[in-house]
Amino acid sequence: MDLKEYFKRIGFTGLYDKADLPTLCTIHKLHVMTVPFENLSIHCGERNTVDLKVIYKKIVLDHRGGWCCENNLLFSWVLREMGYKFTMLGSKVFNKVTNEFSLMDTHLINLVEIDSKPYIADVSFGLTYQIWEPLELIAGKDQPQAPGVFRLLNDGERWTLEKTGRKPLIQNEAFAKCSLVNKLLTKTTYSFFLTPRDIDHFLEASEYLQTSPESLFTQKSICSLQTPTGFRTLIGCIYSEVTFNPQKDVDLYDMRKIPDSEIETVLKEKFNITLGSKLTPVNN
């Protein structure tokens, strides 16, 4: 495993002799702009793993993406190699359908300490929820970024991440009522405690997420990548190109259905992904 190969993968060409906040912000943003959040392996008859060497090969050498236990575990290795002081944490994802948090920690994030200040680094939530740069761990503070205004709320020992975004404006009338677009302006993302975790803590969650019929990740094939002007997604056969327009306080959604014969081309051209096995697009 070679840190320089990771930097090459994300396009980082700067200096990294100091574990400071500007450098962390740079690599965090580059990661979400170049490495997709995706679960395509489990819809190609493959398995996701928490083996760091396997994840490194998949994301860095094979130019794939991954979900949180892959992207954020790889990012924790990057933090370690660069000399940052960090702690892996587990978080419970909020389900907008049931209006509840998940029972187990299904999402891995990293807490990074710089000059005695803690920050949340998360390069793998994807879609409209993705932070582009680390968030300062401070309660109630609005932290504006291109996707919207993020804030961390504190209730005793529990922290909760939420985001206030802009109104989604769907360009194609056929998708006006599409359930893939969350029209709530303020969205709860996940909650977490500051309890240090190792990767074994996520083994049960990783198994559940890729095998249970109740898991979002078995119900939908997802590929998402942030762009300088917004983000793009492929969920099942539905492709969305989203452009942020803060001047008009809207996010523009250009959505269309992709024929099966064009899925591989879209993955290559829009996400720079080439799959080794046949994908079965799913959107239940």
Main attributes of the structure:
nine-stranded antiparallel sheet, 7 helices, alpha+beta, 284 residues, six-stranded mixed sheet, single chain, 24% helix, Arylamine N-acetyltransferase fold
DSSP strand content: 25-35%
- What count of domains describes the coordinates? 1
Category from helices, strands and their pairing? alpha+beta
State the CATH class. Alpha Beta
Give me the count of strands. 15
The residue fraction in helices comes out at 10-25%
Total DSSP helices: 7
Q: What spatial form do the alpha-carbon principal axes imply?
A: globular
Low-confidence stretches: none
SSE succession: HHEHHEEEEEEEEEEHHEEEEH
Overall mean pLDDT: 96
Please compute the radius of gyration using only Cα atoms: 18 Å
End-to-end distance: 37 Å
Q: Within the CATH hierarchy, at the fold level, what is the topology?
A: Arylamine N-acetyltransferase fold
Main sheet characteristics? 9 strands, antiparallel
GO molecular function: arylamine N-acetyltransferase activity
Protein name: arylamine N-acetyltransferase
Family: Belongs to the arylamine N-acetyltransferase family.
EC number: 2.3.1.5
